[in-house]
Amino acid sequence: MINKLSYSKQKGILIISFLIVPLLLLCLFSLYPAVYLVYLSFMNWDGYSPVKTFAGFANYKDVFANKEIWQAFSHNFVYLGWGLLQNVGGLVFALMLNSKLRGRNGYRVMLFMPYIMNGVAVAYMFNYVFNSEYGSLNTLLHSVGLDSLAISWFGSPKIVNHVLGFITLWKFLGLNMVIYLAALQSVPSDIIEAARIDGASRMQTIFHVILPNMVRVIELNLFLTIIGTLEIFDLPFLLTKGGPLGASDTFLTKTVEMAFKFNNFGMASAMSLTLIAAVIVILSVQRLVTRRWSD
């Protein structure tokens, strides 16, 4: 019967047929959970009772009035600082390894290798590095006579987030390098040659020719970095459990704690939506800054 239809109608039916399953999956696993999350944020629910009571904006008021939650959110900005540093480091290594450096492919593999490692494995590996009792770092410091520097890396409230931030830098530096390498290789070589012929130094060529042609990629990398650092969960959960005394809690670990430890899924949902709103605001500022720089 479909053979009797016109070509345009057959094409439309075929396209719709192929789109039905992906759209159903999208609605089932993305749109429905998002709508249900909004619904739960206005409810009081313990996660297992069939009864949900309407709470209005009470959950959101509790979120904004809770100082512990926003103290935990401030820890995310430590990760953001390390994330910006990993972008700078990735760009520097990309510039170095985009040149005719001997053994550059080996260096690329070495820098990218940490990214493909399992996150749980990375967490436990660094647990043996920074452990205050049997960690390899403190053992090394003791062996060279630097006993005063051998501290409890995960037990110091002032240092613990920077230690965790360093681990994220170690893991994701290679990914940033690979993305920037791809962007560098897409920069037209003729404009670089023209800049050198005009007498531009290497630094002038980088800042005035190469980087302006990489603005979109830098913007994308910053986008991914901001999302990743504001939603970080695995490292503090696996290595410190938010300790000591909540010093390494992040917004997401507090959200999970609110849901599964205190059985307050309504407030946890409100926290999730608040985090989404905060990410949108910060990304908007980042986009405004990068657009002004590109202009």
UniProtKB/TrEMBL annotation:
<keyword id="KW-1003">Cell membrane</keyword>
<feature type="transmembrane region" description="Helical">
    <location>
        <begin position="109"/>
        <end position="130"/>
    </location>
</feature>
<feature type="domain" description="ABC transmembrane type-1">
    <location>
        <begin position="72"/>
        <end position="286"/>
    </location>
</feature>
<dbReference type="Pfam" id="PF00528">
    <property type="entry name" value="BPD_transp_1"/>
</dbReference>
<feature type="transmembrane region" description="Helical">
    <location>
        <begin position="12"/>
        <end position="39"/>
    </location>
</feature>
<dbReference type="InterPro" id="IPR051393">
    <property type="entry name" value="ABC_transporter_permease"/>
</dbReference>
<feature type="transmembrane region" description="Helical">
    <location>
        <begin position="205"/>
        <end position="230"/>
    </location>
</feature>
<dbReference type="InterPro" id="IPR035906">
    <property type="entry name" value="MetI-like_sf"/>
</dbReference>
<dbReference type="InterPro" id="IPR000515">
    <property type="entry name" value="MetI-like"/>
</dbReference>
<dbReference type="GO" id="GO:0005886">
    <property type="term" value="C:plasma membrane"/>
</dbReference>
<keyword id="KW-0812">Transmembrane</keyword>
<keyword id="KW-0813">Transport</keyword>
<comment type="similarity">
    <text>Belongs to the binding-protein-dependent transport system permease family.</text>
</comment>
<dbReference type="GO" id="GO:0055085">
    <property type="term" value="P:transmembrane transport"/>
</dbReference>
<keyword id="KW-1133">Transmembrane helix</keyword>
<feature type="transmembrane region" description="Helical">
    <location>
        <begin position="77"/>
        <end position="97"/>
    </location>
</feature>
<protein>
    <submittedName>
        <fullName>ABC transporter permease protein YurN</fullName>
    </submittedName>
</protein>
<feature type="transmembrane region" description="Helical">
    <location>
        <begin position="163"/>
        <end position="184"/>
    </location>
</feature>
<keyword id="KW-0472">Membrane</keyword>
<feature type="transmembrane region" description="Helical">
    <location>
        <begin position="265"/>
        <end position="285"/>
    </location>
</feature>
